[in-house]
Structures are given as structure tokens and as C-alpha cells.
Amino acid sequence: MKKAFWLGLLLLAGFGMDRAEGKVQLIIESWRNDDLKVWRDTIIPAFTKKHPDIEIVFSPTAPTEYNAVLDAKLKAGTAGDLIACRPFDKSLDIFNAGQIVALNDLPGMENFSKFALAAWSTDDGKTSFAVPMASVIHGFLYNKAIFKQLGLTVPKTEKEFLAVLDKIKANGKYIPLVIGTKDQWESATMGYQNIGPTLWEGETGRKGLIDGTAQYNKGGFLAAFEALAKWRPYLAPGYQALAYPDSQNLFVQGRGAIYPAGSWDIGVFRQMNPKLDLGAFKPYSFDDKSQIVVNDHPDIALGLNAASKNKEAARTFLAWVATPEFEQLYANALPGFFPLLKGDYTLSDPVAQEFASWRKDNPTSFRSSYQILSRNANPNNENDLWNACAQVLNGTMTPQQAADFVQKNLASWYKPQQAR
Amino acid sequence: MRRFRTHILVFLAPAVIIYTAFMIYPLCDSLWLSLNNKTAFGQIFVGIENYLTLFRLDKWANPFWNALRNNTIFFVIHMVAQNPIGLLLAALLARRVRGSSIYRTIIFTPTILSVVIVGFIWKLILNPAWGISRSLLASIGLAGLDNPWLGLESTALVTLSLISVWQNIGIPMMLFLAALVRIPEDLMEAARVDGASPWTIFWRIQFPLILPTVGVVAVLTFVGNFNAFELIYATQGALAGPNFASDILGTFFFRTFFGYQLQPADPYMGATVAGVMLLIILTGVLIYLFGWQRRLQHIQY
């Protein structure tokens, strides 16, 4: 017992010595506690092989507590050197407070598209303050075995999509479309924002909302509510009370055929049921919109703490994060998270590779409510979309009512929408 | 002149200090927050303007009245279901049936379970995909009656209220039982000798004697219900769906004060909602104190 204690002390002393040899230590704050193993086994060793003088410590917090914990640590001056940044306003706030620094001059930043940087830039797009790490992509996952059994082919247009759903429904054995409305966000995120960008022509529509030239109750944004309403007849019995984990389980157990997805589900499904024969198809096109737009949503980036004592080392690490090497490592370790750096990537997971191919061949955009429009607490655009989309699927609101409701609430506080 | 009794201060101090530090100070601080608001120049005192906003502006007033209405329904369901059934159970258990202590324990068990567990269990029971409610109803030929109870605007709030009743029924039962067993047996025996039925004995002797407890239970229910939050949050999430059909003051406060998802937090309006909640609860308790408790006759057995 006593021996073990002395041994422990000796080990501790050893660690202390190690640090004293002039190694610089960098601490990374993040909400991705699921990724602890990936960082420890893959990413950090790859970096330290090149830079043995820098020691990286990945120190994540639970996702739901991250914002509060980070805020407290930044205020107290105890936050790590590198800060994982959520997209848009949450990070813009800490940048405006001077807690993270501008990174425009970091080598490698020029290799990201304006679009990828938008989530971590000031409203005018001139200053960027975090290195984009990964995005998530929306589309549909399907059960290949069921498709084979029923002799179905992957749908490309809305007509084909609805025809496939009709066939699955007629067979009666499987739930055609697995999505519940109880948690509300899936209806908006995996429904509306999944098929919608095609209808509102991606960036044209999204930016139109911001400068006031497009409205939620007109054109593509209204059409997207109407397209969403067509899903209603194909949902599981009692879908109004099915939560997100319920849908995941129904699909993974093979009880449903098609699952409107976020790419992060790929990794989750692979773990839940490795035997599931998973396939993917991209958001479908419409009669009057043949060019699809893929929702490629920026999800995570890395910023530099303004109070860091090791800024030089931190910049070295950030510059490495902005290289294809890092992006490739990260994307392969976490199927469903995709590099934001321009370039070609080969992903080992075939379904992830399928998702990645869509954005290479099609224009991309991201969720309409994330930039600027959800800045107001009440009414809040994102919350309104959740509610309206869930109600459209529940049949308690018509698409027109839903669109009018969201538009009215947005126009109630957002100046560019008021003059119209 | 009498000597000042220092020991009184010493004995009072721990309670006063702890209560002040952890209850009175935060309460006053929260009320103060509700009288301020954020402007471009920082936090400034705005008087009761936040309260006027809450009642006058549609975007605040609509969700507020919705939450208050839902909260009232939540409370009424507890008053008509939880407390009478609790009283009935207590009256039955007071008759010293065989194994009454086992029943008592079983009925009280849900009360000591964590709300999160209760919410989770009921979410599973009522789940349309894996729940047992569908197969239970199907086994008696009523499968058509099954509904996604927690997912419909018309049923979500009532379902949640009944779950809460199921969980908390042990509390009124215990309080009523404690009051009932205190009534001396001689009174009931005398009534029985006079030929009174158990029904008459209950309404003419037992019930009037436990009236003070009825009041206490009512006020505890009132305070508990208008403070409720956890069950709705655990089962429906902070958005208290569908379409805010199960939104009560607690969840409305939570979203406003802490924010939700992309919705930024608004501590000033949040504190205002909390201030109104305090006012509602205070009013209810005062009505109880002056309208009910003062009129009670206390009987010494």
C-alpha cells in the first residue's frame, strides 16, 4: 500500500519533470466529449509526431453544459488555449467580447470557402475568428434490405420519392418514413431544412431572408412547408409522441424504410446496429427545381483564447487544423462529420463518402435560421420553425398558416423584413 | 432593566443567516433584476416596465396567459383527482385492513422516486412504438382507444397532470391518514352505537375533524403546482410541446431566463416571470391564511 503511494508520487514527479523540460502545453476546450478517444488515439499523436515540443490536452465538457462552463472559465481567465466554437452567434458573442482573437492571417485560412467561414465570421464577413473543423450534411438514409425486398429503387425526384413511400405503405410491413414530431427539432432540421434549400435555391433564398428580399410565406420557403406536409401520410402510428431516440431505434431495428437524416446519425447507427445494411440518397429534386441544393451545415470550429499564454504554439496547432491532413483524420475518425476545407477526401465509410459526394456535385447552403435571424429571444426564429414544422406534420397547421406564422414573428422584430 | 439575552441571538443566528443567504437574498435579487433591463448603456432601472411588457405586448402576453391557463388546469386536475383519491385511500387505510402498511408503502413509493425517472417510465409506457398501453388496450379489445397521448395538443396536458397525480398521491394520503388516526376511537364507537353508517360517520365525524388538514393539503398542492417544472421538462422538454400545449409557468420561466437552443437568454424578463409566479403563489397562500385557516376551530381531543 505504502509502496504504491510512493510509486504514484514518483510518477507524478516524473510528469512534472517532463513539463519542466520546456514542453509547451495546450489545452483544448470542447463539448465533444464523445470524441475523447479519437483525439487521444488518433489526432494528438499525429500532431505531436511533427511537433514533439507541444503537448496537447483535450479537455471536453458535457455538451449541454459547455456554453455555461466555457463562459465562466473565460470570465475567470482559466479557459484553455484553444476553444471549440459553436457556429454563429454563440461564438460571435465571445469574439465581440474580446475573448477569442481574429485569425484572418493564419496560414491556411485562405483555403476555406467564404461559405464555410461564414459561421465563424463577423456579420460583414470581413473578420474570421475560428478555424472550421467539420460540417454535417442532411439527406436520407434508407434500409437497403427493405428496398431490395420490395424491389424499390432510390428516388431522385419528389414524384419518385412519394411513389416509393406509397409502395412501402401498400406493403404494410414497414414504416415508410421514420420521423417523430415530439421533440420538434427533427421536423425542422431533418425535414424542412433538408428538402427546403432546393426549393429556395440555397444561398439565394437564405441570404434573401437576411436582406429582406425573400419571405418565409412566399416562394421557395412556402413551397418547402407544402413539400413537408406531403410526408404526413407515411409516418409511423403515433408519430406525434415519438421522440428522436425512438425514431433512431425504429430505423436501426429495421422497422422503418427511410429515415430523414443528419449525417451524424451514420456513426450512431453504425454503433447501434453494425449489421444494418445502410444506404443513403440525397435530397430529392422537384418538378420546377431540378437542381438540388445540399444542406451542408457548419458545426464545429476551433478558436484561439485571447488570454492564452502560448499563442505561438496554439497558432502552430491551428495552422495544422487548417490542413487537409487534419481534416482527413477527423472526418475518418468521426463518420458523418465532414471537412470544410476545399479539396478531395476519401472517407473510409461508404455512406459518409456518399454524403460527401453530394456537396461536391451540387451547390450547398446551410440552415436558414442560423445566421442573424435567431438573434432575438422572443419570438425566436429557430424555435418558431420547430413549432411550425412539427405542427405541419401533425396536421394542426396548414403549410400556409405555418409560413405566415413564422414570417409574422420574424417581421415583428427584424428590420429588413418590416418594409415589405 | 433586564439583561439582554445574547443566547437568543446566538440560537437564532444559524437559521437566520442561512435563510437570509440562501432564500431571502436571492429572492430580493431576483425581484430587483425584474425591475431592470439591459440597454446600450448597460443595466438600468426601469421600474415596473418589464411587468407591463409581460402583460401588454402580445408576444409576451400570449405565451404567459397560455402558461397560466395550462397551470390552472394542471392545478384543478390535482385538486379534483389527487386530493379526493388521496382522501379515499387514507379513509380505507385508516380502517386497518389487513396489509394496510404494505399498501401504504406501495402507494407512497412513486413520491420518493426522482421526477426524471417517473417521466422516463411514463414516456416508455405511453410510447406508441414500444409502450405497453397499446397492447394492454388491445388485450381488452379497445386498441382503437390508444392515442399518442403525450403528442396531441388535446391530451398532453391532462396526461401529464395525471402522471403527476400518480406520482404525488402519496403525500395527501399520508397527511390525511395521519389526521384520521388521531381521531379518538370513542367518537366513532359512540356513533356506531347510535346506529350511524360508516358513510355518515365519515362525513359527520371524521371529515369535519380533518378539515385543517384538507386546507393544508390544498395549499401544498397549490404551491407545488404553480412551482412545477421538472415533470414537464423531463417528459416534453423545455419547449413543452406540442405547440406549447403543456407549457406551464415553470417551463415558460426556464426558456425565458436561460434561453433555449438558438434562443438567447433574457434574465430580466425571466426574473419578471418569476416575480409574477411569486405574486400568484403569495396571493394563494394569503387567501388560505386569512380566508380559511382563521375560521377553523381547533379541537382538542
General description of the model:
- In chain A, helix 8 packs across helix 16, helix 10 crosses helix 17 (399-411) and helix 16 (381-394) runs antiparallel to helix 17 (399-411).
- Chain A contains 17 helices and nine strands.
- In chain A, strands 1, 2, 3, 4, 5, 6, 7, 8 and 9 form a nine-stranded mixed beta sheet that branches.
- With 420 residues, chain A is α/β, with parallel strands linked by helices.
- In chain A, helix 2 links the parallel strand 1 and strand 2.
- Chain A has helices at residues 2-20, 36-50, 63-76, 89-96, 114-117, 144-149, 158-171, 185-199, 203-211, 219-229, 244-252, 264-272, 311-321, 324-333, 350-361, 381-394, 399-411; strands at residues 24-30, 54-60, 82-85, 131-143, 175-177, 256-262, 278-281, 294-304, 364-365.
- The radius of gyration of chain A is 23 Å and the shape is globular.
- Chain B has 301 residues and is mainly α.
- Chain B has one domain: MetI-like fold (Orthogonal Bundle), CATH 1.10.3720.
- Chain B has helices at residues 6-34, 49-56, 58-94, 100-112, 115-125, 133-139, 156-168, 170-182, 185-193, 198-209, 211-226, 230-236, 249-258, 267-292, and strands spanning 36-39, 42-45.
- In chain B, strands 1-2 form a two-stranded antiparallel ribbon.
- In chain B, helix 3 packs across helix 8 (170-182), helix 4 crosses helix 8 (170-182) and helix 9 runs antiparallel to helix 10 (198-209).
- The radius of gyration of chain B is 24 Å and the shape is globular.
